[in-house]
Amino acid sequence: MLYRTMPKNGDKLSILGFGCMRLPMANGDIDEERAITQIRYAIDHGVNYVDTAWPYHNGASEPLLGKALQDGYRERVKLATKLPSWLIKSREDMDTFLNAQLERLQTDHIDYYLVHALDGRLWDNVTSHGIQDFLDQAQRDGRIINPGFSFHGVLDDFKRIIDAYPWTFCQIQYNFMDQQFQAGTEGLKYAAAKDIGIIIMEPLRGGTLALPSPPPAVAALWKEAATQRSPAEWALRWVWNHPEVSVVLSGMNEEDHIEQNLNIAKEAHANSLSQEELDLVDRVRDMYNKVMKVGCTGCGYCLPCPMGVKIPTCFDCYNRLHMFGKTEEARLFYIVFTSGVARGEEPGMASQCIACGECLEKCPQHIAIPDILEKAAAELEGPEFAEQLEAVKKRMGVA
């Protein structure tokens, strides 16, 4: 495992962090035994930064991580969690959430505490309720060690927040597709110039950049490389190539993904990609921009939808339709996973959207969700949809 130094406090952090937003599932809940085993395996192999948040897995992630860090594991890691900024209505709320998180995580302090998912509006809200006083007090009494924030807004607001408080670190979305999105490369360099440590989320854009079988046009480009790597390795190495990056978070929920990421994190030094390799990644980015219809990362913040629409699943199917050009396969996938026939669930198809707009305020990617759902429904459902749905039901033995 390679380690990088956090500028303001000298902490040596593993360049790979374990993100607990997408833990393995079983029967609709976190597969507790498997998740704990995965987290501990990563720690045993050098990971020393673990990240969770109040809403992850509908509130179940923090308690699970608290269990995983028993038996001596808590002392081996820097623990990060986040204050749910959108739920703050008073100064007292901040202490209430933090104290509850300490109990959930079975610890007396949080090493890296973030104000979660900030944009300009949410920053103004928590500022009006005394966020700076809260962070100062929580550091004085030892409940948190290092203050930071995660960000999903526009660049000007990112700079404004950076300048508003003596942060130790920040967390931004960054990958080779999102160089000019949200904080982007300019925000990365702005924070680094002020010695603020940088944690990266969504390095694989919700897994889209790590598909083992990428779109054919993308796969053809990767094959041109003198050194052959998996799509996941290219994406991770591109982020780690930036010396400003302290830690890259990966939501690892498959054992082979953990092993692969650990192996890459042994070798991914800053400034190690050649100019030819960087040029190739740029060409891959341009190709993805041509074939991908929607930049959804599958985070699920838009859920639950009042009408039951399975928004990330609809977008995944819509992207598959355009990235791979296999219309029938994409429509079959869509029917199986949005109609409810596969698991006896209520349907969650794109056509159920009534454009109420509730999802728009929740989406950290600022996607025009209702508009795109309308387009997805037109292409994925279409005139033969009812007949195809009945055929799938018959094949699966569903009345």
How would you summarize the topology of this molecule?
Layout: E1 3-5, E2 12-14, E3 16-19, E4 25-26, E5 29-30, H1 32-44, E6 49-51, H2 61-68, E7 78-83, H3 91-104, E8 110-118, H4 120-128, H5 131-140, E9 144-151, H6 155-164, E10 169-173, H7 184-193, E11 197-201, H8 216-222, H9 231-240, E12 247-250, H10 255-264, H11 275-291, H12 311-324, H13 327-338, H14 358-362, H15 369-380, H16 385-395
Parallel strand pairs: 3-6, 3-12, 6-7, 7-8, 8-9, 9-10, 10-11, 11-12
Antiparallel strand pairs: 1-2, 4-5
Strand content is: 5-15%
| Multimer state | single chain
The general outline is globular
Enter the CATH topology name of the largest domain.
TIM Barrel
Task: Classify the secondary structure makeup into a structural class.
Answer: alpha/beta
Query: How many distinct domains?
Result: 2
Uncertain runs are none
Give the neighbour order of strands across the main sheet.
3-6-7-8-9-10-11-12
Mind telling me the C-alpha Rg? 21 Å
